[in-house]
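W.,

You were right to be curious about this one. When I first looked at the sequence I had no strong expectations either way, so I just let the prediction run and decided to look at it fresh. Below is the sequence, 235 residues in total, followed by the output.
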Amino acid sequence: MKYQRILLKLSGESLMGGQKYGLSTEVLTSYARQIRSVTENGVQLAIVIGGGNIFRGLSGVSRGFDRVKGDQMGMLATIINSLALQSALESEGVKTRVLTSIRMEPIGEYYSKAKALEYMRAGEVVIIGGGTSNPFFSTDTASALRGVEIEADVMLKGTRVDGVYTADPEKDPTAVRFDEITFDEVYARGLKVMDLTAFTLCKENRLPIIVFDMDTEGNLGKVVAGDKIGTLVHN
């Protein structure tokens, strides 16, 4: 395997599958199978999941929610998703721990770098819920922060899109996918890979990002093995 320690970022929206909100058991099972096959090869894996399938703080503001309360509701949504993925992984026989950035034992253990590394080294998958525990920070930023903290080799951003394009491929049929691109070029072109706080954190700490399509089963294993899947963003 090319990468030995990975931070995997999953989008909450992807967990909906074909539904308009909530959780798809089919998607959860597919993700769990892919994660199991990777960990069976000795890869250490930490996961951060978004909460957009349940509640998104920013969209709540437009409906009259206070931004801080909205973001806190979003943090709780990420923990619901973390528990759902933990359940799916355990059904596949993968020992999994949920760590939360907000104290909420017995739902999950309080996150610390030392605890995350201890479990990962013991061969367990670690899911880190609750974002950064602060409002105004996205789960992309939480992923970048945790990836840097646990000294991951790479941050894998599993989405419904198979990489970074010159424009939104769903709106522009002429958009072209990059095999790899530098952080500086992403800035210069104004491409939307993730929010700027997260992106800058990865750039400054030299944490490469691979954006790939997680919904095609088997892709996670290919990325971890070093196959040319998705787009590599690097310094």
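Here's what jumped out at me. The beta strands are 5-10, 44-49, 96-100, 109-110, 125-129, 154-159, 180-182, 209-213, 231-234. And, maybe more interesting for your project: The domain at 5-234 is CATH 3.40.1160.10 (Carbamate kinase).

Coffee later to discuss?

I.
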